[in-house]
Amino acid sequence: MVDSPTHESTMASILEVEMTAYLLRRIVQIPFVIVVTSLVIFLLIHLTPGDPVNEILGLHATPEMVRVWRHKLGLDRPLHVQYLSWLWKASHGDLGQSIRSAQPVLKLILDRLPLTFVLITLAMLFSLAVSIPAGIISAWKCGKFPDYAVMFLTLIGISMPQFGFAIILIMVLALRLDLLPISGIGLVKPLQEPWRFAQYAIMPVLTLGLGLTALETRLLRSCMLDALSEEYIRVARAKGLREYFILTRHAFRNALIPLITVVATYYALGMGASIIVESIFGIPGLGSLLIEAVWARDIPVVQGCTFFIAIFFVVANLVADILYVYVDPRIRFQ
Amino acid sequence: MEKKKVTRRKFLKVAGTVGLWLGAAASSLLEACAPKPTPAPAPPEAPTPAPVPPEAPTPTPVPPTAAPTVVPSVRKDLVVGLHADVPSFGAFTKLGETGPKVNESIIRRLARVSHETFQPEPELAVEWAMEDPTTWVIKLREGVQWHKGWGEVTAEDVEYTINYIVENQAYKYGTGILNVDYVKARSKYVVEVKLTQPFLAFPQVTMDHGGDICCKKAHLEMGEEEYKINPIGCGPFQFEEWVSGSHVIIKKFPDYWNPDQPKVEEVVFPIIPDASVRLAALEKGEIDWMDRINGKDIPRVRELEGFTFENVPGWNWDCLAFGFAPYIDAKYVTEDFPTQIKEVRQAISYAISRQDIIDAVYYGEGQPSDSPIPEGFPGYRPWPLKYPPEGDLETAKSLMAQAGVDGFDAEVIGLATMPWHVQELEVIAEQVKPLGINLSITAVEEGMWHERWYEHNFTMGMREISMVSADTDSCLYWFHRSGAKHWQGWPNAPDEWLDGARAETDPEKQKELYIKITDRVIDECPYIFTGHVNVIRLYDERLTGFRPWRVYFIMTLDDVGWTA
């Protein structure tokens, strides 16, 4: 019988085996993805005009000084030697030293990564907290005033550039109303001063979350409308289920898949996309570290940052794939 | 046998457990978000006193300038907004523009040239004299202490620092440390500097710009990599904390040799890259001082209540530089290209209205000039020397006719990270259009700009140069054919005059050489100078004690304090 306990347990076992095999396949792929990504970034950064030694020594450097420093930094070695040397060390947890500051790259990244991660996570939570109810209500009241209001607001959210929104927030919340501080989050210890940290984080989080909220709301609305037009929803209504349960337990669950994709992608992209927000608010995060390294041609730091972003991307997508299965059991791992 | 199945309840249970672990991890993350200051080095053991050799002949003393007026201080802290992160600290690496703003309060120089009087003032050195044309003798201030228990400043530290720069060709080699053969400590407080040739500007250049002295003992024990992030100096402030990308904190050094300095206990340097945000932070009171103001904000901030708008003539020049064949890649310039003709370059110089550039791009904050020598430098003559500030289109056209050139197209590169240069090029492009010259402007980012300049891949380029020292040599050595990368192939570079001026010991003869060099530069126009731009700073009007340095990369806080 299709619905017998034996059949259900058999299906569950098959699911576990499939999931384990799938996870193992994805985990095995991770080093390959990271190696290919790091190689591409390595080649791109070396093709980019600009010599890091010139950035260190300045315009007064003689050719002899440049030669001495390039040798000291190992930049006169063949490219493949440089890359393989970096890869070997990276596999042992050593991402090299910053050319500009001579600090270990791993230390620089680990010092900056947590703040970026926390801000992106807060922005994500904020966007979900707003976009889920807004998307559901907009779909439920499609064609009526709430739908028009949500669509209008999301249009502004998508159209508004991050920089512009940040400046507006600063002008209104910081300067005009004197409610929030503008910069200095790096001076605050979050666990010791959580409320003060929150004050500093509000504007960056709103800026980071604005576009994402608008995107998620529109996406969710679209998926909800698709789901609400399905036969099973009509059946549910005919059975007399309350509209709340129909929206949340049935339609929303089917609309969740694209949202998971957006969330997972945002986490990885957000690491680099936070550059603008970090520059505006003076946040010592991974984005600002990356852009400073690019300008200074600090090759080890650029490689280290992209290495971490690649890892994030892979892990985020893996988590998304796992969540798909639990949200929609129809999805298999083959 | 119990049959396993993955149900929603089980999934939620697992998810809940995972969530608790994630929460714990998040707490660790938040803890990790806390500022990560670079740990201060352990204080050293007490040093063994070195034997004091016999004293050298006493050099002729240089009278010190009067100290600034002491003012009562109300607030004990100061917040200085920086526009970029500090690359590092110390005496041996490039510090960018923001690094010296912090470094100058930690690391002291042998002498510091006043930008008002042009005279070197004692700092670590109290007396100095030229014993013979290639030997300078310096007497150090006694009793000056290194920070954090690293002992007393002695001649050995000076010997070590300068010899290190020479042997390793470190950052200020070739600019501040010029023509140095060796340095030797004659006694505990007396240093002998032997030069490879006479150098009259030794106090202004080597003792000032090249005179940052590091602690030998600390540098040897810590190593250069550690010293760069945990500098040990002898200035009025000692290094406390640096969170890369966020801020630097320095605190008052209690054992500073001058008991009246500094006036504040702590200085915080938050890093706020965006100029508009930095200005907003200043207006809000989150920071007390800033520079590098957006040009468009200048008219408003001039009249801003509650703030001091400080604008001083800058020791810098903006210029349009030409590449010369065959040094420059033939793809960009050939020997028959119009810019290789002197009259064409002169025509461009005549066509430019320097006054319009200063007014339009810098809102009047600058001086139009056709000379590379700012006011007050040896060899300065009042501008204009040849080209009128408002331009002279008729003369420009006749020069073009004389050269037999109707017009041409050319690319000019400018730095995208200096948008005022791109604006300046736009103004120049309009001004030379009547000559039939069409300039296409390529704004490149800094790495690309350096690459194109160093690899000789440009036709014309806009540059901004700040003088690193109060000597005319720093204005003119850009034209020297050998050595660093600034020479762009000009065949008539006045090397012999530049070398002669550097080695000349008679100030009047030196000035004559500088005038000859300047006249040749202005006549042949390898660079066309457009002006000297004011250095602008904005700070809380209750602050006092700032010295009006004429370059952006110097800042001293010795006497800065609050009056209310």
Describe this structure as you would to a colleague:
The complex is a heterodimer of chains A (334) and B (564). With 334 residues, chain A is mainly α. Helix content of chain A is 78%, strand content 0%. Chain A is built from 13 helices and no strands. The longest helix of chain A is centred in the N-terminal third of the chain and has 43 residues, at 5-47. The model of chain A has no long low-confidence stretch (mean pLDDT 84). With 564 residues, chain B is of the alpha+beta class. Helices cover 30% and strands 20% of the residues of chain B. Chain B has 16 helices and 21 strands. In chain B, the strands form six sheets. Chain B has a six-stranded mixed β-sheet with strand order 14-18-13-17-15-16. In chain B, strands 1-10-9-8 form a four-stranded mixed β-sheet, with helices on one face. In chain B, strands 4-5-7-6 form a four-stranded antiparallel β-sheet, with helices on one face. Classes of the chains: A mainly alpha (334), B alpha+beta (564). At the A-B interface, α1, α2, α3, α5 and α7 of A face α1, α6, α7 and α13 of B.
How many whole angstroms does the radius of gyration of chain A measure?
25 Å
Structural class of chain B: alpha+beta
Overall mean pLDDT score of chain A?
Answer: 84
Sequence stretches where pLDDT stays below 50 over 5 or more residues of chain A: none
Q: Could you describe the largest sheet of chain B, including whether it forms a barrel?
A: 6 strands, mixed
Mean pLDDT of chain B: 87
Number of helices of chain A: 13
Beta strands of chain B, count? 21
Radius of gyration of chain B: 27 Å
Widest beta sheet: strand line-up of chain B: 14-18-13-17-15-16
Amount of beta strand of chain B: 15-25%
The class by helix and strand makeup of chain A works out as mainly alpha
Biggest β-sheet strands, sense, barrel of chain A: none
Question: Percent of residues of chain A in helical segments?
Answer: over 70%
| Overall shape of chain B | globular
Number of beta strands of chain A: 0
- Total DSSP helices of chain B: 16
N-to-C span of chain A = 25 Å
